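All the exercises in this workshop are built on plain-text protein records. A record pairs a protein's sequence with a compact description of its fold. Read left to right, the backbone structure tokens trace the chain's path through space. Once this layout is familiar, the rest of the handout is easier to follow. Here is such a record, shown just as it appears in the course material:
>
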Amino acid sequence: MYRQGDVLLAPVAEEAVPRSVATLPQQPRDGRGRLVLALGEVTGHAHAVVGPGELRREAGPFGAAWLHLPDGGRVVHEEHAAIALPKGWYRVVRQREYVPGAVRVVAD
């Protein structure tokens, strides 16, 4: 399991990836060719993956996201050390926080 700031990446065995993931929309790469896992609303910094792969995400702020890295990759961020990821599938989870009356994704 890997964590960079408020983003958690949990390895998932290929046979455990739900079939429905194949029908989820594939997220486009940003202008720098990265797969953006989370974009900081305040700083504009991003937790992003460089390298070949695909990111599929359910709609909504709490929707699940799935990352496939056929050759491995690196998670990068402007304020954190890069993390090397082995090839495989990952479930991407954004940290959440409770505020009185609601649960929300942590703002960066």
In short: The CA atoms of residues 72 and 87 lie 4 Å apart.
